[in-house]
Design goal:
76 residues; mainly alpha
Length: 76
């Protein structure tokens, strides 16, 4: 495997990506907001584990979004 960092230059050869803040702010559905917080810390996981996290997140969001939402008060 090719090493991106040279022994004489310990800094990363490529800059680290800027990760967006995983925030549930502005999400009205509490179940969806709880699922989105699962993104906190994903940047600290090995890249090989990202696919699993994103797959689980996708499945959880799909399930939450397909649930029958309670009708808002005053609506029928």
């Amino acid at each position: 495997m090719t090493e991106l960092n040279h022994k004489n230059q310990p800094e990363a050869a490529q800059p680290a990506p800027e990760w967006p803040e995983a925030s549930a702010e502005g999400i009205d559905d509490p179940s969806v907001a709880a699922i989105v917080t699962a993104l906190d810390g994903v940047q600290s996981l090995p890249v090989a584990e990202h696919e699993t996290v994103y797959g689980e997140l996708h499945d959880a969001l799909l399930q939450a979004l397909n649930e029958d939402a309670p009708l808002a008060e005053g609506r029928s």
